[in-house]
Amino acid sequence: MDIDYNLVQRAQMLLTLDHPLTQVKDILLREGYPRDQVIELIEATEEVLNYLVPPEYDENKIGIDILHPGEKVQGRKPSVDILIDKHSGKLNLLTPQYQETWRVANEVRKAIKTQRSAYLDFN
Does this model's pTM top 0.90? Predict the structure, then answer.
């Protein structure tokens, strides 16, 4: 299925604004995006990012927790694998030994780059 580009951009923006994935789904549905496209996008995002819990963050940084292959979900304590500086967009990989950390970091970099270019185009 082709997913509307505006839907993808809106989801990326909500995720970069610290909304948990479940809340992003609710917002997109409330905004009237097609249910089948929203569900497909959210499921694909969960699969690609191994997204388990909303990012932990403070006023200056966002932390992303990644489920790595072989890790058990049950009884697992959240931990931060990637820290993102909210002001500069700089990523700090806390678990660079895992391939998934690099994969998620690359996706985050793409999303930040897209957001910045969209913001610059808007202004």
Answer: no
